[in-house]
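Working notes for the structural subgroup meeting. M.R. asked for a predicted model of this chain before we commit to crystallization trials. I am recording the input and output together here so anyone reviewing the notebook later can reproduce the run.

Input as submitted:
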Amino acid sequence: MIRAMILALILTLVAAFGRPTAGEGKISMKKLTPVLLVEEIEPSLPFWVDRLGFKKTVEVPEGQKLGFVSLAKDNVEMMCQSRASLEKDVPALAKGSLRSSTVLYIQVPSLEEILPRLEGVEVVVPVRKTFYGANEIGVREPAGNVIIFAEFEEKH
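Returned structure, recorded in token form:
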């Protein structure tokens, strides 16, 4: 099932963008959906679903556990895939080093609304005001990924 989803995604991208040629001008993109590779999906679900209000839109079992899940809330969508699932689905990718660091940067309307939901979660970037005008906090979710929540003041 996951292999079919990845193939469908690749075909959609090729159909949407074609194969660009040298010197070709504008390309457009519609959406970016990160896929977080995790050892196990289940420990991360309470963080995303219970604390932050994401909904599971796709769930793919892998034996007695989940191999893949798609999560969405408002205009934010993300996916989680277990390393074991990736190894079965796309062995060529699993053979390489996929230990890259990913930080998700999620803009929220109000940092004050999100702070109570992060109680007890490891804070890696304490609440701060940045030089580029954001109020931010960064936390580590149960699978080890860093998530930064940012509120920008509205300009009048």
